UniProtKB/TrEMBL annotation:
This is Molybdate-anion transporter. The chain crosses the membrane at residues 6-24, 36-54, 66-87, 108-124, 130-147. Signal peptide: none annotated. The lineage of its organism: Eukaryota, Viridiplantae, Streptophyta, Embryophyta, Tracheophyta. PANTHER family: MOLYBDATE-ANION TRANSPORTER (PTHR23516:SF1), SAM (S-ADENOSYL METHIONINE) TRANSPORTER (PTHR23516). The gene is putative transporter.
Length: 179
């Protein structure tokens, strides 16, 4: 068990170093490669479901990890590498899209429903088989890749003159417009 945990941490560290290399390049957009990261992580969480249906479990005891177990371990290591890429990349996107003066308030505002959702799922974890849980996680990650694609498309659009003029408007001008 300690060796498996260490392997996951190594995969996460590898993903983090990959993210550092990607973030240091100005030619690669965070929004673009994160789409791929979400799709890969979605596919890696499908591996436990696929091995459950396609590979019969080993009946022999004490022979080590089975072929299906190796396949699942590889999938989880790929997922952990994606997690390692995710955290530095999401911090970069937060700094791009959320203004610093309001970042903590906005992030805390979104943490409340997230934590409620997590508590509800954890309270009802025995209501679903593990394959359903992995399937739901995989679907959520795929939806995240679609939303990331949408964010990339929005980020690529040039800001219109109307948007920039709204951001540069003085508060004194707004009070005169109201009166």
């Amino acid at each position: 068990p300690r060796g498996i945990f260490a392997t996951f941490m190594l995969a996460s560290m590898l993903g983090s170093s990959i993210a550092a290399r990607l973030l240091s390049r100005n030619t690669v957009k965070v929004e673009a490669y994160m789409q791929i990261v979400f799709v890969i992580s979605s596919g890696s969480l499908l591996l436990p479901i696929l091995t459950n249906f396609l590979i019969s479990p080993s009946t022999e005891r004490g022979t080590g990890i089975s072929f299906g177990g190796c396949f699942q371990l590889l999938g989880f290591c790929v997922f952990e590498a994606c997690v390692g890429i995710f955290w530095p990349s999401i911090m970069k996107m937060r700094s791009q899209y959320i203004p610093e003066e309001a970042r903590s308030t906005i992030m805390n505002f979104f943490r409340i429903p997230l934590n409620i959702f997590v508590c509800i799922v954890l309270y009802n974890v025995n209501a679903f088989p593990i394959t359903i849980m992995f399937g739901m996680c995989s679907i959520f990650l795929f939806v995240a890749s679609l939303l990331q694609r949408r964010l990339s498309a929005i980020g690529d659009k040039p800001k219109t003159e109307e948007w920039t003029s709204l951001r540069q408007k003085n508060p004194e001008d707004e009070s005169q417009d109201i009166a």
